[in-house]
Amino acid sequence: MAYFQDIYHSDLSHRARAVYMYLKDHIDSGGRCRLGIRTIAAELGLSRSTVKRALDDLYGAGLLTREPRWRENGSLSSNLYRLL
Description:
Oligomer: single chain
Low-confidence stretches: none
């Protein structure tokens, strides 16, 4: 849990901290997380809007990047999150 020390002592909201720790726990070996907002919200017991705000907080703090993922038919699937 030492890798969370910077998060614990940051000015991030509690929702952003919870989402960051959740993403950190679900990243692959490349530091990427492919979970959708609906899944994150359901597992953390938060609303989708709260998760979106938390992700915006993390993005603004420079702790993650997001890349849109697309279906074969060209519609938006979900984002790929990469923790920095």
